[in-house]
Amino acid sequence: MTPEETSDHGHGGPKSPPPIGPMARLRAFWKSVKPWHIYAVLATVVVIVVVVVPTAVLVTRRNHEKALEEHRKAVEQAKSTPSNPSIARVNLGYAQYQGSHVGTGVCQYLGMRYAAPPTGERRWRAPVEPEMDDSGDQAADTFGPICLGISYTAFDGTQDEDCLYANVWAPANATMDSKLPVWLFIQGGGYTQNSNANWNGTALLERSNRNIIFVNFNYRVGLWGFLASERVRANGSGDLNVGLRDQRAMMRWVRRYIAQFGGDSEHVVIVGASAGAGSVALQLVISAFDAAEDGKKLFVGGIGESVFFPAQPRLEELEWQFDGVLAQTGCDGVADPMACLRALDTATLQSAANIPSPFPGRPGLPEPLPLFYFTPCVDGDLLPDLPFDFFASGSFVDVPMIMGSTTDEGTVFSSNASSESDMETFFQNNYPLLSSTQASAIVDEYPLSIATPLAQHAAWFPSSAKAYGEATFVCPGAYVLSSYTNHTSNSNTTASNKSSAWGYRYDVYDATNAALGLGVEHIWESWAVYGPDSQAGPGNGPASYYTTAAGVVGPVMDYWISFVRTLNPNTLKSPDAPTWESWVADDGGRRRLLFQADKFSMEDVPEDQQRRCEFWRDLASTTEQKV
Length: 627
Description:
Elements: H1 22-32, H2 35-80, E1 88-91, E2 96-102, E3 106-113, E4 137-139, E5 146-147, E6 159-160, E7 165-171, E8 180-186, H3 202-207, E9 213-217, H4 222-226, H5 230-233, H6 242-257, E10 263-273, H7 275-286, E11 301-305, H8 319-329, H9 337-343, H10 346-353, H11 387-393, E12 401-406, H12 420-430, H13 436-445, H14 461-486, E13 501-506, H15 511-515, H16 526-529, H17 550-566, E14 591-595, E15 600-604, H18 607-618, H19 620-623
Parallel strand pairs: 2-4, 5-6, 8-9, 8-10, 10-11, 11-12, 12-13, 13-14
Antiparallel strand pairs: 1-2, 2-3, 3-7, 7-9, 14-15
């Protein structure tokens, strides 16, 4: 077989037909094409170009946009929602806490340490940072023990020396980028008790539409917080005014950690009730000399509710108090009294704190004992001098403020005086430097005609209660406001201060209080500010706040929330609420907002009350109130 007869693969077989070239194929194709074939192809191309391609592009674009939107939502959800919606965790470096969700979009963290336990060698020393705890998540679902205070009852196990705990309420969707204003609440109790502990901030957050962070905490009080003597700090053995130092430690804790909860560390407003309000005033002075570590302010505004200013003696005037504690504990006559006191068990010290004691030179029982004798003192350090002098000279931090009081501040404190003599004795027992002439002058300023009779009380009780209320609460708050607005030319204040201070009088009637002869009692406004359920649980507040005074709660909350958020109570006030005018009127008079159940309105501070406040100011060096 010749090569031509051989297949392409070299296998034997018949010869293959010659291959058809490309041009031959093309000529064959065109010979087979009919005209209608061309028209069909052209129509198909038109459909693809005009219909199919745009539709595909549109669908692709829509799918892409949908994917982007879903991605954006996923990112936002990841930013605002915990990995497990039922758990809220914060890592503070020294400890991790697991909070819980409450209310509508609110998360609470309870019982978090803000300082190490002030026990043993840390008694009567400035607070120190918490110790490291690497045990993992700690349940922050229970309030910590409150600090030990003075009471005439047996030792209460719900209190403890280890008491420096804080609580935070934050929006559940808050992140570190939220930078929400912070409401830091300083509780009251006359510096002798933690009387406003564990108030629940849920209602405030809900009213603010979850636009704030609410924080409260415990601080040392009574013997544990304000034991005073040069021997307390001799040779570095301790510190004075540690209760106030606890407050400052809490402010620094907020500055350092509040961003973890969604708060703005540079927008903190301190708000206090009673002794907490007095603490706000004292912190205005202290902060003028003691800024945060970075030189910035620890707070940008302040609110004082029923501002409390008791006697605040100089350190040398309180040695008798320290001697009494040593005698009651068996630590008198020892070489190192502080070491002896620190070695005692808690119950022994608490028993010493609870022994009723008169001021030197005053009789004891059955006469009325002093209401408060463990209070802040002028120590030459944290309080360098009399707070009165600093307010008088304008040496205090320049921040907007609200301060006010109730109509009947003194009714829960005054003795049931039935005569002028009883009233004089009550004041001399609380202000032992008062002379008989000065005590008599107080009675002259507050005759029977100055106040209406009050149920279940003796004839001179209304006068005594009014005098004590104005001396200790009404006039000090007014004086701080006036001092603030009077000093507009020094380095600590600005001309805008005249419009950045607001005063109030709370006069919301309660039938139960009236029947008890208490009138509108001390810190009665707190039920409106924090909500009637915040202190005792749902439905357990005063009955009137669910009935006749129910309409007060929302608008009062709005004023306070507005101030915390914007440093002005009017910015976010209720639409129907009146404008809250500043403390200093255009004519130089003093104006305050009057809260009543049926209306809110501005009122002038009566001239006779201003005159009585001047009377108390003249006695300030004797009453040792310093304002």
